[in-house]
Amino acid sequence: MRLNIEDIPEDGLQEECDLRIFLDEKEKPVVVHSILKIDKIGSRILIHGTAGAELYLKCSRCLNEFTYPVDTTFHEEYVPVENNDETERLETGHRDLDLSFYRNNEIDFAEVMREQVLLTVPLKPLCSSSCRGICPACGKDLNQGPCNCRREGVDPRLAPLQKLRERMNKGKE
Q1: Phi, psi of 96, deg, nearest 5
Q2: pLDDT, tens digit, for every residue of 105-145?
Q3: With the C-alpha atoms ordered 37, 96, 109, 26, is the resulting torsion angle positive or negative?
Q4: Is residue 125 part of a domain?
């Protein structure tokens, strides 16, 4: 959904919509329900909104897919990009870091919603805080019960650390 800023009335605009967005090129589209209050002050556009969606993520421990609800509130300020020269480089100062930019009098709300939803996704998604993950030897999901793997010895790459640990423990006794 694109909005031409010239279509925003003086008293602002309120939009409620469901947008289908792609978070990743390989994924199915996600439906994001959003409520937006859009105000225009000169050439600046202020957007206050909420976005809600249900994402399907993979747990970083057990690799099972789970539902992750998104419910976020955001505030964005848009200013036009001044195109004086095609080769002109856009320089931003510290005050510009809180700004977003629009071109050709249009704002793409699909991109706004995509950014807001992606900002809520955790770096390491977990199906639950108590997820036990998978066995590194056999790959069994440890949330479904223990595996029958025999864990003997230490990984040979970690053997020097094991010896150091044993020496440190002897020093404490």
Answers
A1: -80, -10
A2: 888 878 888 888 999 999 999 999 999 999 888 889 999 99
A3: negative
A4: no
- Burial bucket for residue 51 (CB in 10 Å: 0-12, 13-18, 19+): buried
Q: Which domain covers residue 26, as residue numbers?
A: 2-120
Q: Is 80 exposed, middle or buried (0-12, 13-18, 19+ CB in 10 A)?
A: middle
Written as six digits, the tokens of 7 are: 């279509």
> Does 75 lie in the same domain as 14?
yes
Asked if the structure places residue 44 within a domain, the reply is yes
Which structure tokens are listed for 96?
């510009």
Tell me, yes or no, whether 18 lies in a domain: yes
| Claim: this prediction has a pTM higher than 0.70 | no
Q: How many CB atoms lie within 10 A of CB 126?
A: 16
* Domain shared by 26 and 94, yes or no: yes
| pLDDT tens readout for residues 6-20 | 888 888 889 898 988
- β-pairing, 65-80 vs 99-102, is parallel
Angle, CA 119 vertex, CA 117 and CA 125 arms, to 5°? 90
Do 31 and 99 sit in the same domain of this protein?
yes
Residue 136 placed within a domain: no
